[in-house]
Structure prediction request, 427 residues.
Amino acid sequence: MWKTTMRLLPLQLVARGGEATLPLFLAAWFGGSRETDLYFFALAVFKVAGSLVFAVFQDSALVPILAELQPDARESRRALMGSLLGHTLLYGGALSAAIFSAFAAVCYARFQGSDLVLSLALSAPLSLLLVMTALRTLFTVFLNADGRFSASPIASALSVVVTVLALVSGHRVGVLIVPFGLLAGEAVAAFTLWRAFGRTPRPTLHRSAALVRFARLATSEILGGAIARMSPLTDQVAASLVGVVGGGTLLAYSGDVAMAPTSLLAAALFPVMLTQVSREVAARDLVSARASMNRALFTSIGLLAVAALALALSARPLLSLIYGRGAMDERALSVMTGVFPYQALALVPFGAVLILSRAHVALQNSAILPRIGVLAAVTNLAFDVVLGRAMGLPGIALATALTHAVVAMVLFASLDRAVRLRMVPAT
Prediction:
């Protein structure tokens, strides 16, 4: 697992390093303003919605199901691919249109004038982005199941290049260019992975036994993910109430830097870990599966703890280096510097949550995820209310760190029970 991860790391460093440049461009060109707050609000809404569309594939129950299909004829997996492709285009497109309509209704109720026009214009490319990301993640899962882990970072790197070129050429349009640039980059990534897959099966609506089982497990994952992803939206709303101009934007900018190590780890380690653990579970080798989970968890915790300490100690010079240019003024840098140590504090528990949730998915214990989502959303809301009122933006960042810690402890405590339940059919 770690050998494969280390081979992928250089590719992921290039891809994720490119993605990390996007906030730099946004900060330099647009700073923190009412327009950027509208963009990050829309982005937070569509990320929640995205959990209903594309997170159904990303590090999901599809991985262990494919692991169980490995001994079968290759055509069985291709048939599943065609069925998933057809259902994604049909239902993903319909759901994306529904989300666009719902968001438009919210905009009409909440905004007026130029704010209304901008928020509606932002929502159109973001809704299309959901379907494109769904296709990209679907192709990624099947390529990873074949052990072709390098295809995804290569596609990500190409996506970043296209997005940056779009932003460079069109940034004078304003923040509206950002979702269109993201959409163009995601389309290139999806096309690249489609080409890497080779002879893609024709989309169908056939409902095989594997598809039905995946739909049952994915329903729990979707519900849990959608509820848990309410927390960033809650943070954005709470940030708008603390009286800091551009507070939601500054919270997002500094959070991007603080969470960068988990992004790299998620790209390089998590797909490999989930694939390996799923294969071990499919082979009923639960001792090896639990050992793989523990190695991934505790090694990652150690690495993230070192990264969190380094980030917290270098907050001001790091943020000045990254954002201290263009439209980003001294006031904004000071606000981000005050928030940043609390966001770095969230690094370790957030990494643990990501690994532990994937461990439960590999064990096909997805039923726990809606309850975890409710726990995360309620805990974060309570901490936001109390700490946001007492500490302002730093309190909102601290609320996120505490929420991740609570969720990680619950997931870890329930892991042994999930392993025992998975052993029952074998006894």
Remarks:
- The first helix runs from residue 2 to 30.
- The chain has a mean pLDDT of 81.
- The chain has one domain: 2-426.
